[in-house]
Amino acid sequence: MKDWNEIKAWRKAQRKELIERRSKLDTALRRRWNERMTTLLEQGFPSLAGRVVGFCWPFKGEFDARFAVRYWRDRGATAALPEVVAKGQPLRFRKWWPGAPTTPGVYDIPVPAGTEIVVPEAAVVPMNGFDEQGYRLGYGGAFFDRTLAALDPPPLAIGVGFEFARLPTIFPQPHDIPMDFVVTEAGIYRAGGNRLTMLDAAACAAEARRLLEKRRLSPPVEP
């Protein structure tokens, strides 16, 4: 598949099918998968404590990242939610905490109302689908791709989605940016544009720390 219009049509159909399948998940099963993925995030990314962590409010049956975010917040992290500035522009992140003032944003998803603008050092990114190299199928607006491309240094990108949404390829284009890691109920994968490789929690923690240091996203050293 080479024609971009053909690829867009294919992605749209895949997105619709995967969202519908996700919406029909048994409630108890979804809860178990959410709990499993929360545990994997906590164990695999302890280095997010004390950092600015961007995440998305759960939408259309997506993985609910709020419990993992609470774990990191309890250890000094700052949580941030995205705000759509304009079509075709990168997202802006605003500080969020339980009880923070919010306003309905795109699709009526809560957006912090006037809280401090922050720059995420890591982002937990929802995926409607993902492929064998960690490229993500989002909602078609390319907001996260633009955001990851615009931030310098780029934040640690952790894609979250359910294993059934794994595809051989999404036919990535030059503007698509792969996730650094993919987390599903099956485990943690190292991605980054290479074939997905499953990691245990210790290996993930070490690799995440290495990437953060390489991108100079380490917390400042105390004098």
Report what the structure shows:
By secondary structure, the chain is an alpha/beta fold. It has one domain: Rossmann fold, CATH 3.40.50.10420. It contains 5 helices and 14 strands. It has helices spanning 4-23, 27-44, 66-73, 143-150, 201-214, and strands at 52-54, 78-83, 92-96, 102-104, 110-112, 117-118, 122-126, 129-131, 136-137, 156-160, 166-167, 181-184, 187-190, 197-199. The strands form 3 sheets. The protein has a 9-stranded mixed β-sheet, sandwiched between helices. Strands 9-8-11 form a 3-stranded mixed β-sheet, covered by helices on one side. Strand 12 and strand 13 form a beta hairpin. The termini are far apart.
Instruction: Specify the biggest β-sheet.
Output: 9 strands, mixed
Average pLDDT across residues?
A: 92
How far the N terminus sits from the C terminus, by CA atoms, comes to 55 Å
Count of discrete alpha- or pi-helical segments spanning 4 or more residues: 5
Counting DSSP E segments of at least 2 residues, the number of strands comes to: 14
Radius of gyration: 17 Å
Q: What would the principal axes of the Cα set say about the shape?
A: globular
Q: Major sheet: order of its strands?
A: 6-3-2-1-7-10-12-13-14
By CATH reckoning, the class would read Alpha Beta
**Helix share of residues?**
25-40%
Give the count of structural domains: 1
Q: Approximately how much beta-strand content do the residues carry? A: 15-25%
- State the CATH architecture: 3-Layer(aba) Sandwich
Low-confidence stretches: none
The secondary structure category is alpha/beta
